[in-house]
Amino acid sequence: MISFLRKIRQKLLSQNKISGYLLYALGEITLVVIGILIALQVNNWNLERNDQIAEQKALQDLKEEFEDQAKRLEYARKRRELSIAFFSRKLEFMKSGMLDSLMAHHPILNLGNVTLNAPNGVINSLISSGQINLISNDSLKYRLASWSEAVEDVREEEDNHFRFVGTEFLPYLQRNLPLTIINFPVTNSNPEHLFYSESQVKGFYEKMIQELEYQNYCVMNTNWNQIAIIEYNELQDDLDHIRALIENELKK
Asked: What is the phi/psi pair of residue 95, to 5°?
């Protein structure tokens, strides 16, 4: 093709046909431009195709990460709900004076101060590398960018609960209960292996449950768990929305 065009150019020049040569040159330039445009378009198609493949891979990784997040969130919520039920029973036992039932629920178990362990490896990697821009859905992109911040807000509330337990509740229990009874009656230890008899343990409980401070700590711990569940529910709404958006994008 190139040899053919060269022969035409040489023939026009030898015949001194300037106007014909100019038309030929214009045509040749046009062909070159068209070739460049076609090459650029093919390159753009390839780049778009590569971006689509990379986006699908990122979406699949995000889908798996958020499936794991959902399980972790559900586990944390159940732990909090168990703690609320636990302390609600304790308060009812204290109100009714059913000490024998209360003894079956040790005061330093089921505090519910669990941490939502929700790693965001895929999201953080996409953001730090700039590949978050591969996500073509702007709504999904925005929610992904704000997810880590939402999780951090929940962790701040969890930290507040941990501080309450560590600086107030547990120190109170340590001042009023010998921690050597921690295995009573949770384990199947033989009575002779325990530091205190059942009657002695009952005496410790009788004194403590009559104190307003202990009752308040039980109520406050329940409140912290209720606050955490509210935070979890809001996070669950975000998680469900993100998962739905990811599923829709994967189906395209």
From this structure: -65, -40
Closest by alpha carbon to 238, among 171, 166, 170, 145?
Answer: 145
What is d(CA 5, CA 203) in angstroms, rounded to the nearest whole number?
A: 109
Q: What is the pTM of this model?
A: 0.73
Q: Which residues have CB under 8 Å from 226's CB, separation 6+? A: 84
Map residue 19 onto helix, strand or coil. Answer: helix
Q: Per residue in 84-127, pLDDT tens?
A: 988 888 788 777 766 655 555 555 556 777 788 878 888 988 98
Structure tokens at 205: 């409980």
DSSP 195: S
Between CA 161 and CA 220 the distance in angstroms is: 10
Q: Which of 40, 231, 57, 236 is nearest to 153 (CA)?
A: 231
Are the CB atoms for 223 and 88 separated by under 8 Å?
A: no
CB neighbours of residue 52 within 10 Å? 13
Chain-centroid distance, C-alpha 153: 11
d(C-alpha 153, C-alpha 138), whole Å: 23
Quick: pLDDT tens for 50-71. 778 889 999 999 999 999 999 9
Q: How many CB atoms lie within 10 A of CB 160?
A: 14
Report CA 12 to chain centroid distance, whole Å: 72
Q: How many residues are recorded in the chain?
A: 252
DSSP 108: T
